Amino acid sequence: MMQNVHLAPETDEDDLYSGYNDYNPTYDTEELENDTAFQQAVRTSHGRRPPITAKIPSTAVTRPIATGYGSKTSLASSMGRPMTGAIQDGITRPMTAVRAAGFTKAALRGSAFDPLGQSRGPAPPLEAKNEDSPEEKIRQLEKKVNELVEESCIANSCGDLKLALEKAKDAGRKERVLVRQREQVTTPENINLDLTYSVLFNLASQYSANEMYAEALNTYQVIVKNKMFINAGRLKVNMGNIYLKQRNYSKAIKFYRMALDQIPSVHKEMRIKIMQNIGVTFIKTDRDKMKKAFQKLIAVPLEIDEDDKYISPSDDPHTNLVIEAIKNDHLRQMERERKAMAEKYIMTAAKLIAPVIETSFAVGYDWCVEVVKASQYVELANDLEINKAITYLRQKDFNQAVETLKMFEKKDSRVKSAAATNLSFLYYLENEFAQASSYADLAVNSDRYNPSALTNKGNTVFASGDYEKAAEFYKEALRNDSSCTEALYNIGLTYKRLNRLDEALDCFLKLHAILRNSAQVLYQIANVYELMEDPNQAIEWLMQLISIVPTDSRALSKLGELYDSEGDKSQAFQYYYESYRYFPSNIEVIEWLGAYYIDTQFCEKAIQYFERASLIQPTQVKWQLMVASCFRRSGNYQKALDTYKEIHRKFPENVECLRFLVRLCTDIGLKEVQEYATKLKRLEKMKEIREQRIKSGRDSSGGSRSRREGSAGSDASYVDPLGPQIERPKTAAKKRIDEDDFADEELDDLLPE
């Protein structure tokens, strides 16, 4: 086995790393300067390498074979030159290929192997920094400028705009000093452009934040015009924003478009935002144009004489006669028409532009009021204030409306009457009838010929139950203004309350001639015909009503009721079903439909209606009893029994439910019948005892009352101490039409025009 094992010889164990410094001196480039032949070859063509011939010994012949034991001999080059690291004539050539690893000639001369250079000792100390050098001063100044810019940004974020601006200015001054020092020490190409850009940009931003728009624009111009700043053209967006704040819309649009042109299409989000700014600017341009147009409208001269011309300055009969003659002639009428037309146009224009020319309609109205006050139409300012209160009303801001209207309590009679009319209307809507009546009196006393004030006063009297007096106020309003539809509508309701149906019908027919498509008027006419026991006419007018409002569930159910009273069940079912489809929560309609299916022997279909009724009124046991009854009539006794048990669980004292449980358990033969029968007897006995107690209590109270009446010497019957229940006029804000709807809810008509 050991015959194949060869041990290593022990003769060559002197040095494992020997021979690594041996190389062919031919490749030693450090001694080329002393090589005469090489230098001669460089200077002349003598040293050009000839082509290899057979006379020259090849490398294969002269190259020795190295063994694994470390014995090596030098290799000759193709030119006969010794290889680097080889030893010839006792002279060792340096091995340049391994110099970087620390193998040098000195190692062969007895020096120790030190590839890391540790034998050279510690490194010399660093040179002390010269703080007086120009480079160091520039670095410190640049650091200070950066710190000032950061402090300026932090102050701006904290809301201290003044401090932020001061820091930005200081940074700008120090940055200019820094630039001059750099120009003295280095070339202009070494100037820090990024620092200059950040300083200027921050300064412009702080100017803009402090509303110093001129300085901000100048600073932005410095950045934009400097071609050395890359993409500085985008800052034209900021310049456009400043022009927008200055309301210079044309320049804002110009700079936005210039910025848009310099932004590449890949930045889609930025381009979209700039286009959005352009659109907003165009809108603001329209607002500015609207304001200018309104001011031009105010400035249009009327070219009419003042009213003082028609007031007699003396008691001269001839002059008075002339003034009386021209007071109402065609020229005076034309002047009145022109003035009325101008006021109408101004009021209409103000109503249109006030909500859109400013951030809110209130600010817009205030601007219009100020412009009107400074013009020849100063009396229209009060009307605009009232319209402002009406706008508050439409937005359901009653507190602001009341505050605005109360400012007119000390104005002249016309304005005071208009404001008091609106205040009366507001308090009436809030059910504060005492306040409503007080302001209605103030409105009537300020202007007795104001039909809206008289109508509101009639409404407050109607709410108190004095229908005759309310009718008088409505009649007076109609005498002052025959086109006052609210007064005509309300007087019709008043006549209906007074059971003067013919007069009520006459009022509503007149109103129908004025308001052809008024659903309220059509309903009132149909209701009056119903009260007059003329169902055919009532049906006819209701058919006109549903042609205008086909989804009115109340009108549809009323039609179903009228057809049912006439015996037409199929038509009644059609309209009741339509009413249920539009408003499936009307208990009366649900009850009728359920009863209709029971009458027609379709108890299964009636179940869904009674189940819905039980959901609407869960505390009413009758709907659940009807559901159980439908199951029982349809033959589903098990379902009926389960339903009755559920009802008994919820209403354990319901006698009717226990009776049906006893009957069903008896018919089916259940053992629970005895339990339910016992409970039924106990409940019936308790009910009987309760009724006897009530009866005995009534007998005793009746006897004592008779004795008291006899002692008083009067046999008068008992009088109910409660007076008639007053139902106040209702608003038309409901989805359904009520027969007692009042017309005072029409805001635009109740308020002065």
Automatic annotation (TrEMBL):
Source taxon at top rank: Eukaryota
UniProt cross-references to Gene3D superfamilies, sorted A to Z: Tetratricopeptide repeat domain (1.25.40.10)
Transmembrane among keywords: no
Ranges of the TPR repeats in the UniProt entry: 233-266, 451-484, 485-518, 519-552, 553-586, 587-620
Region annotated Disordered, chain positions: 1-28, 112-136, 691-753
SMART domains, sorted: TPR
Gene Ontology CC: one annotated term: ciliary base
UniProt biased composition (Acidic residues): 739-753
Record carries keyword Transcription regulation: no
Compositionally biased residues, Basic and acidic residues: 727-738
Gene Ontology process terms (BP): inner ear receptor cell stereocilium organization; intraciliary transport; kidney development; non-motile cilium assembly
Keywords: TPR repeat
Molecular function (Gene Ontology), one example: kinesin binding
Record-linked PROSITE patterns: TPR
Record's protein name: Intraflagellar transport protein 88 homolog isoform X7
Lineage, uppermost ranks: Eukaryota, Metazoa, Chordata, Craniata, Vertebrata
